[in-house]
Amino acid sequence: MQKIKMKTHLVELDGDEMTRVLWPVIKEKLIHPFVDLKTEYYDLGIQHRDDTDDQVTVDAANAIKKYGVGVKNATITPNRERVAEYGLKKQWKSPNGTIRAMLDGTVFRKPIIVNNIKPAVKSWKKPISIGRHAYGDVYKNAEIKTERGGKAEIVFTDALGNETRETIMEFSGPGIIQGMHNTEASISSFARACFEYSLAETIDCWFATKDTVSKIYDQTFKNIFEGLYETEYKKKFTAAGISFFYTLIDDLVARIMKTEGGILWACKNYDGDVMSDMVASAFGSLAMMSSVLVSPHGYFEYEAAHGTVQRHYYKHLKGEKTSTNAVALIFAWTGALRKRGELDGLPLLSDFSDRLEKTVIETIEDGYMTGDLAAICDPGAKKILDSYEFIDTLAKRLLEGYSESI
Length: 406
Ligand code: NAP
Ligand code: MG
What we know:
Blueprint: E1 4-5, E2 10-14, H1 17-31, E3 35-36, E4 39-43, H2 46-51, H3 55-67, E5 69-72, H4 80-86, H5 95-103, E6 106-111, E7 128-132, E8 142-146, E9 150-157, E10 163-171, E11 175-179, H6 184-201, E12 204-209, H7 217-240, E13 244-248, H8 249-256, E14 263-267, H9 269-283, E15 289-294, E16 300-304, H10 310-317, H11 327-344, H12 347-365, E17 368-370, H13 371-374, E18 383-385, H14 387-405
Parallel strand pairs: 1-3, 2-4, 2-5, 5-16, 7-14, 12-13, 12-14, 17-18
Antiparallel strand pairs: 6-7, 6-15, 8-11, 9-10, 15-16
Helix pairs in contact: 1-10, 1-14, 3-5, 6-7, 11-12, 12-14
This protein binds NADP nicotinamide-adenine-dinucleotide phosphate (NAP) and magnesium ion.
C-alpha cells in the first residue's frame, strides 16, 4: 500500500507521563504505516520545558501560527510536588494557558460516541459539544468581605478621568461584594470562534445568558453574538443549513435535556466550566472526550481532554499493565490530520482520519476495549485489553479495512 503524502508540516507537541508513553506507539502502529507523516516536533515534556525556561512552549505556539494546525499531547502543569519530583527551576505556567493566550482561542470539547455506552440522558443520540469562553467574569474578579454595615459602590474612571458610579448596596451589617469584568474584544473573538466551529462541524449553535436579570453585562454578550451573526454569519449558516439560537440559560438547560444532540452549546466562562463536566460525565468518560482550541485567526490545536494519567504512569514504571484508553489521543491525531487534509486539499488524508476513527468506534462497539469502558458498557465487553493490546487491535483492523477496499 502506498503511503499518503502530506504537503504541509503538522506541529507536534509532545507531553508527559502515560500519554508520553502511548504517543509514539500511536504514531508507530496507527499512523506511520499509512501516512508519510510530516511533523515539526516540539518536546513539551516537563524536563525540556525546564531546560529551555519554557521557551519551547512559546516556539510551539508560534509554529502553530506559522503552519495553522497542531496536535498536542497532555502535559504536566507543575505544582510544588512536581517541582520536587522533577527538580524543576520553578512552577512553570500551564502550557495550555500560554498557548491559548498566544493563539487567542476558545476551547471546544466533544464526546466520542459509541453505541454500547449509553448517555445518562436518554434523548441524547448525537454529541453535544461545549464551547467555553476562557476569559474573565468570575475567574478574574475582585472580592471584599465586610465586617460591618456601609455603602458598596462600583466606580469606573475612564481614560479621560471621568468617573461613573453606581451604588451596589447599602449594608446594615456584614456582607460580601464581588466585582468582575469582560471585554468586547474577548467576547467578539469567543462568538467568532463558536460560529466558525459550527460551520466547520455543520451543527447548530446555541447560546444563552441571563440577560433579563443582567441587563448590561449579559445583554452585551447577547448583543455581540447577535450582531456578529447578522452581519457576518447568517448567510454562511443559511447556506450550510444550520442555525443560531439564543435563549435564556435556564430555558437552554431545560431544552438540552430534550434535544437529541448534534449541537454546539456556547457557554460563558462559568457555565462552560460547570456544564462541560456535566456533559462529559453524562456521555460516559473523560477518555472519550476530544478537545480542540480554535483561534479566530484560523489556527487549530487538537488534544485529548484528559491529563497525563499520572496514576497509570506510576504503575507502568513498576512494570505493571495499564488500562489507559488511547481513544482521545488518537482523535487528537485524526482531528489534526483531517484539518491538514482539508486545508491542503488532500482528501486521502481526511479519508484516513475518518477510517481510523471509524475503526476505533467499531472496535469498541464489537466489544474490545480498555478497562475504563468495560466498567460502563452494555452489553458487557468481549475482551478487556490493556493499553498496548487495544492499539494493536486497532492497527490490525485498520489494515484489514484498507486491504478489503483495494
Ligand atoms: P488525568 O490525567 O485526567 O487522570 C485522572 C483520572 O482519570 C485517571 O487517574 C484515570 O482514572 C482517569 N483517566 C483519565 N484519562 C484516562 C484515559 N485516557 N484512560 C483511562 N483512564 C483515564 O488527571 P490527573 O492524573 O489528575 O493529572 C495528571 C497530570 O495531568 C497533572 O499534572 C495535570 O497538570 C495534567 N493535566 C494536563 C491536561 C492537559 O494537558 N490538557 C489536562 C488535565 C490535567 P483511574 O485512575 O480511576 O483509572
Ligand atoms: Mg471544571
